[in-house]
Amino acid sequence: MPETSVRGAVGDAEIAFLTGKLALQADGSVVAVMGGTEVLATATATRKPREGADFFPLTVDVEERMYAAGKIPGSFFRREGRPTEKAILSARLIDRPLRPSFRDGYRCETHVVATVLSVDDEHPYAVVALNAASAALMVSPIPFLGPIGAVLMAFADGAWIPMATYPQLENAVFPMMVVGKRGADGGSDIAMVEAGATENALRLVAGGQAPVNEATVALGLEEAKAHIARLIDLQIELRAAV
């Protein structure tokens, strides 16, 4: 299978999806790249439903690796330890919008793994991993009713910034992860929002930045829909190519 890739812009950031090179024995595998951050997502499922299961047996794991940041474990501990709190929370972040996006009554054990291959000092890996997980399911035979698109919005200096970087988040009053899927009318429907003020919010507002109110958040959600649509289009383009 030749390597296939698609790429496009989301705000000022460029994201690329690549498949056909790594983890070829998985039902679906995609590497998502944004800047120097790369995440390999794999999706695998059994062919028969789990006996007696009255729920969808989906497992999502996020695997952080020290080599992704250019570090090698040393001294006595030369193996990677248990998942960090960030990895556990990122896995839950991926699970929430994926779980209701499968065919009704689907009971086959399904495993989605996001392995962080590389990180930089700019792009958070969680939003890259979520889009990679959706893309991996899209190129697999698993009955996934996607795709879904995820965009990290940050409100700073009175404007919403899509796919915010770490430096932009430090100057932001309010970040939110917005996940959506394509609606029946062809637009983007919001599927999940995770949001909250930053640790610097009070200081930034006291220093003159605009605070966030309900109207501001509503505007951010509307702006996110266009970026979600772009991410969905890229995943559909990738699936059509393979």
Shape: globular
Strand content: 25-35%
- Which strand order do you get reading across the main beta sheet? 1-2-3-4-6-5
Our count of helices gives 5
First and last CA, distance? 9 Å
* Unreliable residue runs: none
Count of individual beta strands: 10
Gyration radius from CA atoms, angstroms: 18 Å
**Secondary-structure element pattern, one letter each:** EEEEEHEHEEHEEHH
Sheet with most strands: 6 strands, mixed
Which range best describes the helical content: under 10%, 10-25%, 25-40%, 40-55%, 55-70% or over 70%? Answer: 25-40%
Task: Output the structural class.
Answer: alpha+beta
Mean pLDDT: 93
Structural account:
- With 242 residues, this protein is of the alpha+beta class.
- It has helices at residues 85-98, 125-138, 166-170, 201-206, 214-241, and strands at residues 4-10, 13-19, 28-34, 37-49, 58-63, 108-118, 148-156, 159-162, 174-182, 188-195.
- A six-stranded mixed sheet has the order 1-2-3-4-6-5. Strands 8-7-9-10 form a four-stranded antiparallel sheet, sandwiched between helices.
- Helix 1 (85-98) packs across helix 2.
- It is globular.
Summarize the model shown.
With 242 residues, the chain is α+β, with helices and mostly antiparallel strands. It is 28% helix and 33% strand. The protein has five helices and ten strands, in the order E-E-E-E-E-H-E-H-E-E-H-E-E-H-H.
